[in-house]
Write a structure and sequence with these properties.
Elements (H helix, E strand, L loop, with lengths): L1 H9 L1 E4 L3 E3 L9 E4 L8 E8 L4 H13 L5 H4 L1 H14 L10 E3 L1 H4 L17 H17 L2 E3 L2 H4 L9 H9 L3 H4 L1
Parallel strand pairs: 3-5
Antiparallel strand pairs: 1-4, 2-6, 3-4
Length: 180
């Protein structure tokens, strides 16, 4: 809830602490991302960029206050973003109204889904697997703005030195790998 209040009051960028930025985010505004490529995917609030006094964020605050349930964590988070976005896109993004909400495809912020993330903490075992990871690495550097490590699933893992996760850390984080 605090995130919505601050976003509404000041605007700006929010990133979860397990996100690394792959390219400048300055071209994005009023944006959230889909969590994965599946039809009916939910919005994920790990990366959000909104202008000050965003009508979408105001709708999120209104929904939060009217439907908060302390026994349902997802209901108050990702499910809330998804409910509000569905209604907001239907009701507010018209020809006369500038885009106040842009929902990015999953590859923009979450190029690897939470279901597949752990395998990328291990080095490829074959030349074919290495070639596939090389292509994925290049594609992420060209098309994705961020990379999500899904820390709730990977916090106990240390990336192997030739893994995709290690390559991303080495490419974008000045001191992260030294700490590991």
């Amino acid at each position: 809830m605090y995130l919505f209040v601050v976003s509404f009051r000041y605007g700006g960028l929010y990133l979860d602490c397990d996100i690394i930025v792959l390219k400048p985010l300055s071209s994005l505004n009023n944006t959230v991302g889909l969590e994965d490529r599946l039809a009916g995917s939910s919005q994920n609030g790990a990366v959000m960029l909104f202008r000050k006094h965003s009508p979408f964020i105001l709708d999120c605050l209104t929904e939060f206050y009217s439907t908060y349930d302390d026994t349902r964590l997802l209901w108050n988070g990702a499910a809330l973003l998804t409910r509000v976005a569905r209604n907001f896109l239907r009701d507010n993004n018209t020809y006369d109204n500038p885009m106040e909400l842009k929902v990015q495809p999953s590859f923009i912020f979450f190029p690897i889904s939470r279901n597949k993330i752990t395998r990328y903490f291990y080095a490829p075992v074959s030349k074919t697997e290495r070639a596939q990871e090389d292509e994925l690495f290049k594609k992420m550097l060209n098309e994705s703005f961020t990379f999500h490590f899904w820390n709730s699933l990977t916090s106990a893992l240390v990336p192997e030195s030739e893994s995709l996760a290690a390559r991303l850390i080495n490419h974008h984080c000045i001191r992260c790998f030294d700490v590991l």
